[in-house]
Every structure is written in structure tokens, then in C-alpha cells.
Design goal:
With 321 residues, the chain is α+β, with helices and mostly antiparallel strands. The chain contains ten helices and seven strands. Strands 2-1-3-7-6-5-4 form a seven-stranded mixed beta sheet. It is rod-shaped. InterPro entries: CorA_cytoplasmic_dom, CorA_TM1_TM2, MgTranspt_CorA/ZnTranspt_ZntB.
Length: 321
């Protein structure tokens, strides 16, 4: 459950640290600890709480998971929840990353489908001057990593939409097509609910928490907010196209049903001719003079066939058959 626990002094790693030694390490000047956890249980979180002095409510939320994206302040520390997303076999999987931020520590607790932060750590360690700014820069790096992972998800959803749209305009609508559109709409709504609160979180970090995050780091969160706005615009545009595609799909279905009704009506009209004639001569009247005519049978059959043929040609020309 403990993925990595490293202490940094002046932006340079001074080695891995056990949880029991965290409080001793933090006694050094210009030092902070970056701890990464995954699916941490209550016992481990209680130990983390003791080392960093975290609030009971924040620990309770981090243990429970299934939290909404948010930011909460507890004394000198912050607690944040961010939703993560990535593609797995063309399906979007969502997870959560809980973050505890203090002046000299940063703790991440990952739940569900979320990517490792090892690349984030490597990138930060390659920039000691930036890492020397403290946990605030690490927070920015993690949030930027999470937001950047939204982009491949958007691209994957766009590809799925393009396939469904092609099927619709190729006049091959089916039940699978409409189910795919609804599934895509559901995933877009989930993604939108995950990213929209991030803008508010960035704004709050820039305005109200200068004591935890250095002033020269605050500007970085404006960049994250800009990325989120662009992603939100892409989602909004895709949702509009999705609604239009669903309407087009339903319109095509209506047109197809109308075509079927027209064909049935056309054949019904053709069959009405022999039905009417045969019903007429099936009334069993005693005196029907034409029945005594030698050529009455071929005349009736020929007349019915000719009228049916003429009606068929007329309906064919009108596009009903």
C-alpha cells in the first residue's frame, strides 16, 4: 500500500523514509516528505495521521473513497479529492486521488483506476530548482498529470463517436448504435462531473491558500485551469454533436419506418383490386349475365392483371415500391 516515501531537502532527494521516521526527518530545515499510497486501509491512514497531524474528517474521507471532487481546509493542511480517468479497451475507467497537502509534506492516496505517479516523481526530481519550492510544486505536478490524462480519454471518446456517426450516415442504424450513443453520453457526463470542479479547486488554491503554497507556484494552477477549460469545451462540443447524432438516428429510423409503411400500403392497394373483383363475383346472385359469357373468366383475370400492373407501375414511379 505504500508506493513510495521520499524526503527532499532543497529540491534534492535525500533518500527513502519509513513512516515511523517521518516526524524525525521533518525536523530538518528546508525538508519535505512526499508519500504515495494506494488503497490504504484504516490502520495505515491512522499511522499517517499521527505522523502528519491530519484531521479526523479528512482521514475518514480518504479511507471511504467514492468522494466528489473537492478541496477542504483543516488548519495548516489541505485535503483534496480529484477524479482520474483513463481508457481501458475503449472503455473509460474512473478512479480517485486523495491529496493531503501541508507546508512540509504531500500525501497521495489512490483509489480505483488511476495511473502511477512514478513518472511525475521522476519529472520533478529532474527539476531540483522547481522541487525546492516545496510540496506546492508537487501538487501542481500531480494535478497537471491527472488533467493531461483526460486528453487521451477525450480523443478515445471522439474516435468512438466518429465510428457511430459513420454508421448512422451510412444508413446502417441499429440497436447497437443507439446503445453506443447512450453509453458515450453517460461517460461524457461522468467525465464532465470529474473535471468541472477542478476549475473551482484551482481558483481557490490561487486565492486563499498562499500560506501552504508559495506565491511563485500559484501561477501554475492558472495553467491547469486553462487546460480544464479547453477540455470542457471539447466535451461540450462532443455532447452537442452527440445529441444531434441521436436526433439524426431517430429521424432515419422514422424515415425507414415510413418507407416500410409506404411499401405495405402500395402492395395493399394492388391486392385491393383482385379482392374487390373476386368479392363482387362471390355474392352468389342468381342472375349475373356476364357469367354466361364464354370469355368472362379470361376477361376478368386479364382485367385484374392489367389494372394491378398499371397500379404497380404508377406506385413504382412514385417511389412507393
Amino acid at each position: 500500500m505504500v508506493m513510495k516515501c521520499v524526503a527532499y531537502q532543497n529540491g534534492v532527494s535525500i533518500g527513502d523514509v519509513t513512516i515511523e521516521d517521518i516526524s524525525e526527518v521533518l525536523k530538518r530545515e528546508h525538508t519535505f516528505v512526499w508519500l504515495g499510497l494506494r488503497e490504504a486501509n484504516a490502520a495505515l491512514l491512522a499511522e499517517i495521521q499521527k505522523e502528519f497531524g491530519l484531521h479526523d474528517l479528512a482521514i475518514e474521507d480518504a479511507c471511504a473513497a467514492h468522494q466528489r471532487p473537492k478541496i477542504e481546509e483543516y488548519g495548516e493542511s489541505l485535503f483534496m479529492v480529484l477524479h482520474t480517468a483513463h481508457l481501458a479497451k475503449e472503455q473509460v475507467e474512473f478512479g480517485e486521488t486523495h491529496i493531503f497537502l501541508g507546508p512540509r509534506f504531500l500525501v497521495t492516496v489512490r483509489h480505483g483506476a488511476s495511473r502511477s505517479h512514478s513518472k511525475v516523481r521522476e519529472r520533478c526530481e529532474a527539476m531540483p530548482q522547481q522541487l525546492a519550492k516545496g510540496p506546492g510544486f508537487v501538487l501542481y505536478s500531480i494535478m497537471d498529470f491527472i488533467v493531461d490524462n483526460y486528453i487521451p480519454v477525450i480523443d478515445g471518446l471522439q474516435e468512438r463517436f466518429d465510428v457511430l456517426e459513420s454508421a448512422i450516415f451510412a444508413y446502417r442504424p441499429s440497436r447497437q448504435t443507439i446503445e453506443g450513443l447512450y453509453e458515450l453520453k453517460r461517460e461524457l457526463l461522468q467525465l464532465e462531473s470529474a473535471i468541472n470542479p477542478v476549475i473551482d479547486i484551482c481558483n481557490e488554491l490561487m486565492r486563499f491558500h498562499g500560506g501552504v503554497i508559495p506565491k511563485d507556484v500559484l501561477v501554475y494552477f492558472r495553467d491547469i485551469a486553462d487546460h480544464i477549460k479547453r477540455i470542457d469545451q471539447a466535451i461540450h462540443g462532443m455532447r452537442e454533436m452527440l445529441l444531434a447524432a441521436m436526433q439524426v438516428h431517430l429521424t432515419f429510423e422514422t424515415v425507414r419506418q415510413n418507407e416500410v409503411v409506404k411499401r405495405l400500403a402500395g402492395w395493399g392497394a394492388i391486392l385491393a383490386i383482385p379482392t374487390m373483383v373476386f368479392s363482387w363475383y362471390g355474392m352468389n346472385f342468381r342472375h349475373m349475365p356476364e357469367l354466361d359469357w364464354e370469355y368472362s373468366y379470361p376477361a376478368v383475370i386479364g382485367g385484374v392483371a392489367l389494372c394491378s400492373l398499371l397500379l404497380y407501375l404508377r406506385l413504382k414511379k412514385a417511389g412507393w415500391l
